[in-house]
């Protein structure tokens, strides 16, 4: 984008309403007394969507950017025919994130995590000066690795050893990307713990996860894609959730679209899903609890080992925090649906048969939740189904794949000194 100018916006504490400037890599309100997400308040209240060739940056009006980067693609929304007919739905729209060239979808990592990576790295600016640290269950790491490799941005990834098969690439990565892992039997939360140790060094800085406005607003482009294509805010939003950050992002985009004034004032109902038996947010929501229910760490790890959608395995999601998933579910009159591996597998096969493309296990969980819910939904309702990852079979076909190998594998409870001494030598 040759004519790009940094985005104008302020930050708002969702809990208190206090607005303040973004002085840099701000993840929290420095004057906030209680845990709360912050939200970007863009100067442009009406979005001008750019051409498709601008990739995710076609939505740059509502992204907190200091620069744009090479290699991005945007989510693609299309009206379903075959799956809609099978389910008896008249207005089912699929927002596809992945590799599906026939539909215009060209995310080479096959995951909507690319949206957050291109947005977060665009927020950094050219003079960032520190190594970005990202913890991931797999897909996020693959997306950030691609973006940072293409744009020569130093990156330290922290991933569970059991999820390393997710770190495939269609070309070799630049040496600016490094990986460490938590040992077999560890999960995403253990990888987060590893990253938290690394960022105690001044050489590194945490990406921030759900607290990073750029991550959420990047993911919110799925909602912008759907609404721009449909012409109005959908009635329902279906997505599988691990952290729930994508759903929080959808609600924030929903609010901006309402304020835009051209797409209606509808509060889209969140129809979220988790992969049983790992159901921390489902259990809390069903119990009417703002706080997650107690869950033994070892028991949680065993549950994670059994689910097909490993990326949905966050034990400490932004559920309770002000502006988090609990608040978003309340605001939207939403719900959470439990989906077992067998239901997800059948749904994934059904989607591939009818829509013509393979999808990730997490996306199959979302499709299964739609199958379970469609009998109770008005057949004429406008439904957005967020396929958060797919097309991997197509992307890999006939290609030599390259896998990122960990520089070191640490135990579940590593010595902080051992971790720091090692990671500081990597860059």
Describe the structure.
- This protein has 427 residues and is α/β, with parallel strands linked by helices.
- The chain has helices spanning 82-87, 113-124, 139-151, 188-198, 213-219, 221-230, 245-260, 280-286, 297-306, 325-332, 341-355, 361-373, 392-396, 416-423; strands at residues 9-13, 19-20, 38-42, 76-79, 92-100, 105-106, 131-135, 155-160, 168-169, 177-182, 204-206, 236-240, 269-275, 335-339, 383-390, 402-403, 408-410.
- It contains 14 helices and 17 strands.
- The mean pLDDT is 96.
- Helix 2 (113-124) crosses helix 5, helix 6 (221-230) crosses helix 7 and helix 11 crosses helix 12.
- The chain folds into two domains: 76-107 and 214-396, Rossmann fold; 131-202 and 400-427, 3-Layer(aba) Sandwich (Rossmann fold), CATH 3.40.50.
- The longest helix has 16 residues, at 245-260.
Secondary structure blueprint with pairings:
Blueprint: E1 9-13, E2 19-20, E3 38-42, E4 76-79, H1 82-87, E5 92-100, E6 105-106, H2 113-124, E7 131-135, H3 139-151, E8 155-160, E9 168-169, E10 177-182, H4 188-198, E11 204-206, H5 213-219, H6 221-230, E12 236-240, H7 245-260, E13 269-275, H8 280-286, H9 297-306, H10 325-332, E14 335-339, H11 341-355, H12 361-373, E15 383-390, H13 392-396, E16 402-403, E17 408-410, H14 416-423
Parallel strand pairs: 5-15, 7-8, 7-11, 8-10, 10-17, 12-13, 12-15, 13-14
Antiparallel strand pairs: 1-2, 1-3, 4-5, 5-6, 9-16
Helix pairs in contact: 2-3, 2-5, 5-7, 6-7, 11-12
């Amino acid at each position: 984008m040759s004519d790009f100018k940094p985005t104008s916006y302020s930050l708002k504490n969702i809990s208190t309403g206090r607005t303040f400037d973004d002085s840099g890599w701000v993840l929290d309100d420095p004057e906030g007394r209680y845990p709360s997400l912050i939200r970007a308040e863009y100067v442009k209240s009406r979005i001008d969507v750019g051409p498709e060739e601008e990739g995710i940056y076609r939505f740059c009006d509502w992204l907190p950017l200091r620069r744009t980067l090479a290699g991005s693609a945007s989510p693609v929304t299309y009206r379903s025919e075959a799956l809609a007919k099978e389910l008896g739905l008249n207005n089912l729209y699929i927002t596809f994130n992945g590799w599906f060239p026939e539909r215009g979808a060209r995310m080479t990592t096959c995951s909507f995590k690319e949206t957050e990576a291109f947005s977060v790295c665009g927020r950094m600016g050219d003079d960032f000066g520190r190594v970005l640290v990202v913890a991931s269950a797999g897909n996020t790491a693959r997306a950030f690795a691609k973006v940072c490799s293409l744009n020569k941005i130093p990156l330290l990834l922290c991933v569970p050893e059991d999820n390393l098969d997710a770190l495939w690439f269609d070309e070799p990565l630049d040496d600016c990307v490094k990986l460490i892992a938590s040992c077999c039997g560890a999960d995403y939360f253990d990888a987060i713990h590893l990253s938290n140790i690394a960022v105690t060094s001044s050489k590194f800085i945490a990406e921030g996860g759900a607290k990073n406005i750029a991550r959420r607003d990047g993911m919110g482009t799925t909602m912008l894609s759907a609404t721009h294509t449909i012409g109005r805010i959908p009635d329902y939003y279906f997505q599988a959730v691990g952290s729930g950050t994508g759903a929080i992002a959808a609600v924030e985009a929903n609010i901006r679209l309402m304020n835009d004034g051209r797409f209606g004032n509808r509060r889209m109902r969140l129809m979220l899903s988790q992969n049983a038996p790992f159901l921390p947010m489902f259990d809390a929501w069903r119990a009417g609890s703002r706080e997650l229910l107690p869950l033994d760490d070892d028991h949680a790890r065993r549950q994670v080992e059994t689910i097909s959608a490993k990326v949905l395995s966050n034990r400490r999601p932004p559920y309770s925090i002000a502006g988090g998933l609990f608040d978003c579910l309340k605001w939207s009159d939403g719900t959470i649906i439990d989906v077992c591996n067998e239901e997800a597998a059948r749904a994934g096969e059904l989607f591939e048969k009818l829509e013509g493309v393979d999808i990730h296990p997490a996306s199959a969980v979302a499709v299964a939740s739609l199958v379970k819910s469609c009998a109770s939904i008005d057949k004429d309702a406008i439904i957005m189904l967020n396929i958060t990852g797919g097309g991997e079979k197509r992307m890999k076909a006939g290609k030599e794949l390259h896998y990122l190998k960990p520089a070191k594998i640490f135990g579940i409870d590593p010595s902080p000194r051992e971790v720091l001494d090692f990671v500081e030598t990597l860059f």
